[in-house]
Amino acid sequence: METSIVGVGVSISDRFRTVVEEKTARIQTLAPRAQRLEIKVTHRAYRNGRLPDETVELTLLGKGPVIRAEAVDPDKFAALDMALDKLAEQLRRAKEKRIDGRHHPRGAHYEKGSGALAGIDVQPASVDVLHAVATGAIPVQEDEEEAYSPVVIRTKNFDPEWMTVEEAVDRMELVGHDFFLFVDARTDHPSVVYRRKGWDYGVIALTTAAAPPAEEELAS
């Protein structure tokens, strides 16, 4: 795996390059198909008396989605460690999802042995039922007042859950969905976290605050 290091407002020392070479070996183990790791170190100084900090951004390129991670710390070596931990965690989760996907495929699939459709909550009608409908033995009810629509909208209702954005992301990864609906504990706004390309996450929130939980829920 090729590694490139770029410094913005800071020089890259030989010691830092050596540490990068030593600590990125585990990334190669977790992502053997990775072709290139780009490391960007940015030094930021502030005029309001705030101490300067170092931002380390990692971008892993290869066959598959681009994976990014970054961390900020006054010490660029500490920021590097934190960014590598984040990148390793994303790679570990991606590997577990691939393994789980092979063992537990999602979506509908046909089981040859039983002739059933697995992974979907619809079962095909039997030959007898199809014949009865075709011959009129089973009348087909038509409601002229209700407009036909080929789109079936399924509705699910859940009780609101107050949590932080970080907790919502963890919950979304736990259930394996691409989005998760929750109430932001910091703002009381109904919000949705969702997965973006490159293992980034986004948050969409409504400006209207959610109603507080009932007293009996708090008591329980």
From TrEMBL:
Subcellular localization: Cytoplasm
Gene Ontology terms: cellular component: cytosolic small ribosomal subunit
Keyword Nuclease: no
GO biological processes: negative regulation of translational elongation
Primary residence: cytoplasm
Domain of life: Bacteria
Domain Sigma 54 modulation/S30EA ribosomal protein C-terminal: start-end pairs: 149-203
Membrane-spanning intervals of the chain: none
GO MF term (any one): ribosomal small subunit binding
InterPro entries named among the record's database cross-references: HPF/YfiA_ribosome-assoc, HPF_long/plastid, RHF-like, RHF/RaiA, Ribosom_S30AE_C, Ribosom_S30AE_C_sf
CDD domains from the UniProt entry: RaiA (cd00552)
Function field: Required for dimerization of active 70S ribosomes into 100S ribosomes in stationary phase; 100S ribosomes are translationally inactive and sometimes present during exponential growth.
SUBUNIT field: Interacts with 100S ribosomes.
UniProt record similarity statement: Belongs to the HPF/YfiA ribosome-associated protein family. Long HPF subfamily.
Protein name in the entry: Ribosome hibernation promoting factor
Organism classification: Bacteria, Bacillati, Actinomycetota, Actinomycetes, Micrococcales
Gene assigned in the entry: raiA
